[in-house]
Write a structure and sequence with these properties.
The protein is of the alpha/beta class. The chain folds into three domains: about 5-140, Response regulator (Rossmann fold, 3-Layer(aba) Sandwich); about 145-250, 2-Layer Sandwich (Beta-Lactamase), CATH 3.30.450; about 265-425, 2-Layer Sandwich (Alpha-Beta Plaits), CATH 3.30.70.270. The protein is built from twelve helices and 18 strands. The strands form four sheets. The protein has a six-stranded antiparallel beta sheet. The chain has a five-stranded parallel beta sheet with strand order 2-1-3-4-5, with helices on both faces. A five-stranded mixed beta sheet has the order 13-14-12-17-18, sandwiched between helices. α12 (about 400-415) links the parallel β17 (about 385-395) and β18. α1 (about 10-20) crosses α5 (about 110-145) and α9 (about 305-315) packs antiparallel against α10. It starts with a strand and ends with a strand.
């Protein structure tokens, strides 16, 4: 690819000097202009690779030309300012305005020997600058198109940059996170919101990255949500710790799913009561408490009378509605500390701690009365059912919780065999 050099100088002799000095450069074509106006037109029409600009021009000066070039934002061409001896301040001003380099035209002409190497150096530096800018633009594009939130912080925990996803999730304005303290946004569970106590402050002592899945992040609208994030060290070229890059995701939906899974593992989905798993876990702990404190522990085993007929006559939707109403009535009949569970089908259990015989009898009668109240199913069918209840207490009839449950179950079946609708104690 041919490089073009535009020389803007009103001196014909200087043009010849520059041409002789640069003629040995491979792949270069020279263009010339004698006024600023002419040079600007060639620049707009031909887009040269580099401009050699004399400061003194008949219709303008080099600084004014640079200013016009800056105003044309679509043009990015390196410029070498040529000044006479004694005009070094002008050259410095040109550099401030964006010139890539300057050459002082000494009387002896020594600068001519340096011209080829300066042109090559300026073009190489400009190419590096363009490549760096492209990489920066690419990084910015990637940063702002990823769905995850990305935040960069300094060694003091102050936010240096944030991508648009982070700003959107945190409900803040563009650049609204910059300058804020990360410890006021990401709140570690169980720790104060101070930088010194924050896990991110300890990152320099870690292996280079860390992940957390239990923290909360606060948004500008006053809300908050759980996040999973990974933080990675930012090191300088000499491996000095400069800060961290944090990549985070909103895990609200994941936490909801986990909560549902956890609930489904311990609660009956139809009635909302604890299920067989939770019943056993709770009873195991309740038995340990009763054993430790030498207090009574009682299990009620409840089976509905006539549930199969309801299902067969009105369908499973009616049966499900009946079970839901029974669950509510059972919970309304017990103390707040008693555990009501559905352990399968139409079978329910109740765990009662530290109650006397007369209290257990009163509760059993209360449960029977509650269950026997009429039910209106599917907004159309009014029915009644009853319950058979078996009751077993520790330490009277069992030495462990499994035996206690079996005793209560057998007592319930004795009621079934004797005509249903009633309660009985295990012996």
């Amino acid at each position: 690819m041919t490089e073009t050099i535009l020389i803007i100088d009103d001196n014909e002799d200087d043009h010849q000097l520059y041409s002789r000095a640069l003629r040995n450069l491979d792949g270069f074509t020279l263009m010339t202009a004698f006024t600023a106006k002419e040079g600007l037109k060639i620049t707009l029409d031909s887009r040269p690779s580099i401009i050699m600009l004399d400061y003194k021009l008949p219709d303008s000066n080099g600084l004014e030309f640079l200013e016009k070039l800056i105003q044309i934002r679509t043009i990015d061409i390196p410029v070498i300012m040529l000044t006479g001896e004694g005009n070094e301040p002008v050259a410095v001003e040109a550099m401030k305005m964006g010139a890539s380099d300057y050459i002082v035209k000494d009387v002896a002409g020594g600068f001519i020997r340096l011209l080829p190497s300066i042109v090559k150096h300026v073009l190489a530096s400009h190419a590096d600058k363009i490549e760096t800018r492209k990489l920066k633009d690419l990084h910015q594009t990637i940063l702002h198109t990823v769905a995850d939130g990305v935040i960069g912080i300094g060694i003091d925990g102050v936010i240096l940059f944030a991508n648009s996803s982070a700003e959107r999730m945190l409900k803040c304005l563009p650049n609204g996170l910059i300058g804020r303290q990360i410890s006021k946004l990401i709140l570690p569970e169980g720790l104060p919101s101070s930088w010194s106590a924050h896990p991110l402050a300890l990152l320099p002592e870690e292996s280079g990255s860390m992940s957390r899945d239990i923290d909360i992040i606060q948004s500008d609208d006053g809300g908050s949500f759980p996040v999973n994030y990974t933080a990675s060290r930012l090191d300088s070229f000499n491996a000095d710790f400069m800060g961290s890059v944090i990549v985070f995701q909103d895990i609200t939906e994941r936490k909801k799913t986990e909560h549902k899974l956890l609930r489904s593992a311990h609660y009956d989905l139809l009635t909302g009561l604890s299920n067989r798993v939770m019943f056993r876990e709770y009873l195991d702990k309740a038995f340990a408490r009763a054993d430790r404190s030498q207090r009574q522990l009682t299990v009620f085993f409840i089976d509905l009378d006539g549930f199969k007929e309801v299902n067969d006559t009105f369908g499973h939707h009616a049966g499900d509605q009946l079970l839901q109403i029974v669950a509510t009535r059972l919970e309304d009949s017990v103390r707040s500390g008693d555990l009501v569970s559905r352990i399968g089908g139409d079978e329910f259990t109740i765990v009662v701690e530290d109650s006397q015989l007369n209290q257990l009898k009163n509760l059993a009668q209360k449960l029977l009365t509650s269950v026997e109240q009429p039910y209106t199913l599917l907004d159309a069918h009014t029915i009644t059912v009853s319950a058979s209840i078996g009751i077993a207490s520790y330490p009277q009839v069992a030495n462990d919780w499994e035996s206690l449950v079996n005793k209560a179950d057998k007592a319930m079946y004795e009621i079934k065999k004797s005509g249903k609708k009633g309660f009985g104690f295990a012996l």
